[in-house]
Amino acid sequence: MATKKNTPANEPGKAPTDPSFWDGAGEDRLNWVEGKHFAQPQADHIDDRDIEKKWEDIKPSYRKTYPNLTEEDVSYREGEFDDMTQRIAEKTNRSRDQILQEILDWRDEDY
What we know:
Elements: H1 27-30, E1 32-33, E2 36-37, H2 48-65, H3 81-91, H4 96-105
Antiparallel strand pairs: 1-2
Helix pairs in contact: 3-4
């Protein structure tokens, strides 16, 4: 009788520790961040234009949540969205990937 591998389905919220679990895991391995499994695509799998469009919608509520960010910090010229998200990351002591994921996950009714 084969033993059951440690999988997200049987241990939610825990990244499998057995290295053989990841053999052939492909994209699913990329969806584990800090021990949490994300069913939705992560920021690096989303088109930057989609993130930019969402940014324009949430920018006012984002600034209310982070009052230390200036208008200059949250504004950008065409082609400089990456620079803006890097500025926000530096000002909030987070990574750019965390900022992109936050933008993707942002729901105005939560803030």
